[in-house]
TrEMBL record:
Domain DUF2510 as annotated: residue spans: 8-37
Keywords noted in UniProt: Membrane, Transmembrane, Transmembrane helix
Taxonomic path: Bacteria, Bacillati, Actinomycetota, Actinomycetes, Micrococcales
Protein name per Swiss-Prot or TrEMBL: NINE protein
Compartments (UniProt record): Membrane
Pfam families according to UniProt: DUF2510 (PF10708), TM2 (PF05154)
Keyword Membrane: yes
């Protein structure tokens, strides 16, 4: 039975356990990085920002921009088309409004409650 060393990467220093140390695949180097303090949140480099998503939904919700931002282009295009049809039919009607505006508003309000789950799922995909 052969003993295969682990691949190159950062590992907990086997001597002190107080820092990460670079293993080059064959031997330990003298390159160290400090450990993150316990309770320190790690940055989500590939994930989307919850606050950015909420701002996009609040200010541009009817255009589906927040859904484009979260990588959901099909539903974003449907929401955008619904908004454009609502604006067009509202402009052409005598009352100046369209019942489709209610659908856009309801969709946007429901999205405000769905945003945490949508952001979580994009972070899990990344």
């Amino acid at each position: 039975m052969t003993n295969v060393p682990p691949p190159a990467g950062w590992y907990l220093d086997p001597r002190t356990g107080a820092a990460n140390r670079w293993w080059d695949g064959t031997a330990w180097t003298e390159t160290y990085t400090p450990l993150a303090p316990v309770g320190t949140p790690q940055l989500q480099r590939d994930g989307k920002s919850m606050s950015t998503t909420y701002l996009l939904a609040i200010f541009l919700g009817g255009f589906g921009i927040h859904r484009f931002y979260l990588g959901r282009p099909v539903s974003a295009l449907i929401l955008l088309a619904l908004t454009l049809v609502a604006v067009t039919t509202g402009t052409l009607s005598e009352s100046g409004s369209s019942p489709l505006f209610y659908a856009v508003w309801i969709w946007t309000i429901v999205d405000l409650f769905l945003i945490p789950g949508m952001v979580r799922s994009t972070r899990n995909r990344a």
